[in-house]
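Project standup — Tuesday

K.O.: blocked on the structure for the chain from last sprint. Re-posting the sequence here as requested.
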Amino acid sequence: MERIWNILSSWLIYAAGAVLAYNHELVGIGVLFLFFFVSDFFTGLFASLKQGKGFQSSKARWSFAKAFSYLGTFAVIVFLGTTLKKMEVFMNVLNVAVWSATWFECISNLENLLILFPGNRFLKFMHFILAVEWVKKIPGLSEFLKEEKSKK
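H.V.: unblocked you, prediction finished:
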């Protein structure tokens, strides 16, 4: 077990060094993603408490699983970039992946805040713009979401 931990920690340090060496902007984006993840966890907790549901471990596990999935995706992108020695290309892919994850977390935050502050028009407007109108700009996504909703 000790050997696996050493290999894993050294690989994570290597990946972090590769990110820092090739694009220091992503550190700021990563901090932004971390902020959105932590705020999503706490706004979800407070929204659940406001609805009288209390702390739900299944939702907390989902929140952490979602974050680890994002971070795993980021790590795989960095690993592929360093392995294939095409870090510039993979940094662009990583940039898109981080911004996408941040967008998803932002939508989740807005939904939790709407539970906490149901009459806030600004939050309703921001949710409409980011979750509804922006999605319409992605070709085929609204049809896919309608299809998925009809299957349920």
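K.O.: great, moving the ticket to review. The CA atoms of residues 94 and 121 lie 34 Å apart. Residues 87-116 form the longest helix (30 residues).
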